[in-house]
Input
Amino acid sequence: MSEIIFLGTAGARYVVAKQLRASAGTIINIENSYLLLDPGPGTLVYLAKRKIPVEKIKTIVVSHHHLDHSADLNVIVDAITEGGFKKRGTLFLTESALRENILLPYLRNYLKKIEILKPHTVYEENPFNFKTTCLLKHTAENYGLLFYFPEGKIVGFITDTAYFEELAKEFAEANILVIYTVRYKPKEGVLHLSIPDVKRLLAKMKPEEVILTHFGMTMIRANPFKVAQELSKELELKIRACYDGMSIKF
Output
C-alpha cells in the first residue's frame, strides 16, 4: 500500500507567518519507505506529531528554494544522518537552490547523494520513481512533478507557477492532480495559480481526482472546502480541498 500525507497546506507568506495552516511538507510512503517533498517551516515538528521517524526518510525533493518549500531542509538532513554519523539519504533539488546554499555546505557530505533536478527528466530512487515537467513560470527555478506509484497511479504536483497553456499537456498522464492554489482570484504580477486558472486547466484535462492545496489568504477567506465543492459541481469532477494532515491511500 502507498500513501500520501499532506503535513501542511499553507502557501503564502501571511498564512505561513501566522501559521493559519501548517507549512510543513508532504510525505510519500511506498512500502514503508518515505520521501519528503518541500520541507517548509515546521516540517520536523509535524513529522514528530504524526509519529513518522525522521531517520526513515530516505529521499528529499525540494521543488524550489523559497522558504515555504525549504526552510526545514537543514534540520531534516541533520536528523536523517544523525548529525553526520550515518551517511544516508538522497536530496533532489534545483541547481539554483544548491547555488543559493539552501543546504548548508557542511551538511552536503552527510548525504549519500545529491541530484540536480532538470526539465523532463526521470529519476529513480527505489522505490520512488518520478519525473519533472518543463520549467514552470515562477520567481525561482521550479519544476512540476509526476510520481509513479506501484499500484499504477500517477500523481502530478503542480507546484508554484503562473498559468500557461502547456500546463495541461505537461500533466496529462496524471490520474490524481495536486494543484498549488495560492489565490482565489488572479493578481497581476503574482506568479501563482488562482481558481480561474484551475478552471482553465481542468477544461483541458479530466483527471480522476483533483486536490487543491498550498492556500494563500484569499483562498482561506473564500473557504477552500466550499470552493472545491462548487468547482466539483460546475466541472463535474472529483475536487477536494486539502487540509493539514490529510492522507490518501492506494
Q: What stands out?
A: Residues 2-244 form a domain with the Metallo-beta-lactamase; Chain A fold (CATH 3.60.15.10). Residues 25 and 39 are 4 Å apart (CA to CA).
